């Protein structure tokens, strides 16, 4: 499937790049105006929000620029509620761009091999939906590559 980029998308991509550079410098601004998603995310301490579904818990790690996608991102550990064993990781990217919407998605996750088949990824995504709504992500894009066969099972 080919995606054609029109002039508007090209301009949005430039704005996104400028935004990512500004966020990495700590400004959180787009063209001099505060970015609502970033400001809400910065001021909200997600470590204090209980994120739990049965034996699955999410522990907030940090809020930082995603190393690959260069957008502000909340990083979480998926842990077993009782044993605190790490089950995997999940992140919520709190900015939109053509790249995020078409390819990367707002959510990225990885479940450790020994813990697959317990629906941890889909349950973790459900736990993040209220946070995504708070920061104004609507719609919330979740994507997968053509080689990610496990994704259909997870979601």
Detailed description of the structure:
The protein is α+β, with helices and mostly antiparallel strands and 155 residues long. It has a single domain (7-154), classed as Aminopeptidase (3-Layer(aba) Sandwich). Helices cover 35% and strands 25% of the residues. The protein is built from 5 helices and 7 strands. The protein has helices spanning 7-24, 36-43, 98-104, 120-134, 149-154; strands at 29-30, 33-34, 52-53, 56-65, 72-80, 86-93, 107-111. The strands form 2 sheets. A 5-stranded antiparallel beta sheet has the order 3-4-5-6-7. A two-stranded antiparallel ribbon has the order 1-2. The protein is globular, with a radius of gyration of 16 Å. It starts with 6 loop residues before the first helix and ends with a helix. Residues 1-34 have low confidence and may be disordered.
Give the SSE map.
Elements: H1 7-24, E1 29-30, E2 33-34, H2 36-43, E3 52-53, E4 56-65, E5 72-80, E6 86-93, H3 98-104, E7 107-111, H4 120-134, H5 149-154
Antiparallel strand pairs: 1-2, 3-4, 4-5, 5-6, 6-7
Structural class: alpha+beta
* CATH second-level architecture: 3-Layer(aba) Sandwich
Spans where pLDDT lies below 50 across 5 or more residues: 1-34
Q: Beta-strand percentage?
A: 15-25%
Could you give the count of β-strands? 7
Q: Radius of gyration in whole Å, from Cα?
A: 16 Å
Outline, from the CA principal axes? Answer: globular
- Give the tally of structural domains: 1
- What is the distance, rounded to the nearest whole angstrom, between the alpha carbons of the first and last residues? 22 Å
Q: What kind of sheet is the major sheet?
A: 5 strands, antiparallel
Q: How are the strands of the largest sheet arranged?
A: 3-4-5-6-7
CATH class: Alpha Beta
Task: Indicate the CATH topology.
Answer: Aminopeptidase
């Amino acid at each position: 499937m080919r995606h054609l980029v029109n002039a508007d998308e090209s301009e949005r991509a430039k704005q996104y790049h400028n935004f990512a550079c500004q966020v990495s410098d700590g400004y959180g601004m787009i063209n001099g105006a505060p970015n609502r998603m970033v400001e809400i995310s910065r001021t909200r301490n997600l470590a204090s929000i209980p994120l739990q579904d049965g034996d699955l818990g999410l522990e907030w790690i940090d809020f930082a620029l995603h190393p690959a996608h260069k957008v502000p991102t909340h990083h979480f550990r998926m842990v077993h509620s009782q044993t605190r064993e790490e089950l995997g990781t999940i992140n919520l990217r709190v900015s939109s761009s053509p790249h995020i919407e078409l390819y990367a998605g707002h959510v990225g996750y990885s479940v450790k091999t020994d813990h697959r088949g317990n629906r941890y990824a889909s349950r973790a995504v459900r736990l993040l939906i209220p946070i995504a709504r708070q920061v104004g992500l609507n719609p919330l894009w979740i994507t997968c590559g053509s080689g990610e066969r496990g994704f259909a099972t997870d979601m």
